[in-house]
Design a protein that fits this description.
- The protein is built from no helices and eleven strands.
- Strands 2, 4, 5, 6, 9, 10 and 11 form a seven-stranded mixed beta sheet that branches. Strands 1-3-8-7 form a four-stranded antiparallel beta sheet, with no helix packed on it.
- The chain is globular.
């Protein structure tokens, strides 16, 4: 079983930065694909960024086109943690952000492919 806990959300102005953190339990964290999703009111949950575990092509990162060049995902397997650094935030980045994990080395954009989810953290960007 894997438990995920997000932290770091908040209210910021456009152009500001935020760091979201996802702390995970479990001895096999290093094998998991970890991803950040977000969901804005009235919209579907969408993949923001993801990073693979050490199996397969280890540590490969992937980003949604809307955040490329602004967001960076990183993982520290010694701390069972994944961070999402968000720079140059825009009002359209406003959403609830969720950390998710799946027991495979393949990164997926599909919400139902992820077995474990955190409770979410709210990010609000004012203009």
């Amino acid at each position: 079983q894997v438990q995920l806990v997000e932290s770091g959300g908040g209210l910021v102005q456009a152009g500001d930065s935020l760091r979201l953190s996802c702390a995970a339990s479990g001895r096999t964290f290093y094998t998991l694909v970890i991803a950040w999703f977000r969901q804005a009111p009235g919209k579907d949950r969408e993949l923001v960024a993801g990073v693979t575990g050490i199996t397969g092509i280890g540590g490969r990162q992937s980003y949604a086109d809307s955040v490329k060049g602004r967001f960076t995902i990183s993982r520290d397997n010694t701390k069972n943690a994944v961070d999402l650094v968000m720079n140059s935030l825009k009002p359209e980045d406003t959403a609830a952000y969720y950390c998710a994990a799946r027991r495979t080395h393949v990164l997926s954009e599909t919400v139902s492919d992820y077995e474990y989810w955190g409770q979410g953290t709210q990010v609000t960007v004012s203009s």
